[in-house]
Amino acid sequence: MATQESGYEVPYADLAAALLSASEVAPRARLIAEQAAAIVPGAGVVVYVINEAGGWSPKATAGEVAYQESFIEFEFGTLGVLGGKREPVVFDGAALAREDYSHLGIRRTLVALAGIPLLVDDNIVGAIEVLSFDAPIAAGAVSALVDLGRLAALGLAAGAAYEHERNTQLESITRIAQMYDLEKVFNATLEMDELLPVICSKFQEIMNVQAVNLWLVEGEDLLLTSRAGEDPGYEIEARQSAGQGVVADVADSGEAVFIADPADDRIQKRNVKVEEGGAFSLVAAPIVHQGSVVGVAEALNKYDGTSFNEDDQFLLSTICETAANALHNANLLQAERKVEILELLVQVSQEITSTLNLDRVLQTIVNGTQAVIPFERAALALDERGKLRLRAISGMTEESVDLSLPHVAALNEVLQWASGTQEEIFVRQRGEEIDAAREETRAKFQEYFRKTGSRAFHALPLMDDSGRVGILSFESTDVDFLTPAHLEIIKVLAGQATVALRNAQMYKEVPFIGVLEPMLEKKRKFMALGQRRRRLVVTLAGAALAFLVVVPLPMRVDGTATVAPVRRARVQPELEGTVRKVYVREGDAVTRGTILADLEDWNFRSALAGAEAKYQAAVSEMNRALAANDGTEAGNQRVQADFWASEVARARERLERTHLRSPLDGVVATPHVENLVGRHLDPGDDFAEIVDSSHATVDIGIEERDVALVEPGHGASVKLDSFPTSTFSGQVVVLSPQGEVREEGRLFYARVDVPNPDGRLRPGMQGRGKVWVGWRQAGYVFFRRPAMWMWSKLWSWIGW
Question: What is the pLDDT of residues 751-762, one digit of tens each?
Answer without folding.
Answer: 888 888 777 888
